[in-house]
Predict the structure.
Amino acid sequence: MKKTLIAAALFAGFAGAAQAETSVTLYGVIDTGLGYNKISGAADGYNGSRVGMINGMQNGSRWGLRGSEDLGDGLRAVFQLESAFNSGNGKQGAGVAGQGSRLFDRQSTIGLASDSWGRLDFGRQTNIASKYFESIDPFGTNYGMASMGVGMSAANMQRYDNMVMYQTPSFSGLQFGVGYSFSANDESLARGRVNFRTADNLRALTTGVRYVNGPLNVALTYDQLNPSNAEAKNAGQVTPRSFMIGGSYDFEVVKLALAYARTTNGWFAISNPTGASGEMVRDRKVTDLGFGSNAATKDFKANSYMVGLSAPIGGASSVFTSWQHVSANDKLTEDDATMNIFSLGYTYDLSKRTNLYAYGSYGKNYAFNDGVKATAIGVGLRHRF
């Protein structure tokens, strides 16, 4: 009897130690709602509207696994696998351009981390601008065309395959990060195979620095895409670049956010204004673009600005708003129309994990098309587990 008790105690102790050294967490988000969307004013007379389900507006619906193993001396092995799904129809993926047939389309990384020297990750992951500006944008780089990623493409949750990324620990609020992708989008390659020569693949550089201390949050980032040899030859060696600077300050009563971006030789993240479940109602000239090289245009330049405000209302709700202004030359826009987007959002917490939200956005000269107006209104329910 005594031996049995001793063995049980030893087993429990070893199990507790193993659990303390290694952990794996299942997590996810389910975000679904109803929305109204309209586009009007196209030069060819096209007008369209719809009412239907929306998916992943406050946060993209996803499930994932995140794990950590203690290797001793403060060193940890870490991994994260994250897959998007459409909560409106249950399908894998969320209809995001470029996600393709990937199982873990949102993130697939393994790496090493230490509180003293930082974190090194290998695999598919978001770029530095998306990481650093998500906490600055009042809409968290979400809510469809309300996201600052519409006017500032590098912050539009850009994800690169085959990325090596290093981020320092926070030194009194100061942090630096840099990443390089040897083949940024394997889905664009024949049969999904990476070309043997590095220069025959689309490569990406992302870097930035941020300072987060108390109410102050400031970030500075730079992104660059190096086209493959074939793309460089066809496009005249065009290299898209994006420079971003911005910050926010929380006055407790209200939080102010400002951001500026300069994009050259690049194409733009003109998001689907509907956010609908895999369906788009849009002017035929309004296309879904992203910071990339396939549609890069030499000498194209754009200046983008964002002003945002957010404020808590009571203890369970908050309201937030933003104005985006994007001016570009006529290398891509033809008529050189200046785009403006006005957005308003609201959230109400039902619990720590579940909340209701509502939003509305209005875009003028949307996607740089003179006279085109885009409207998106929606309400939804989000649950995190």
The chain has four helices and 17 strands. The helical segments are 2-21, 128-133, 229-234, 330-333. Residues 2-21 form the longest helix (20 residues).
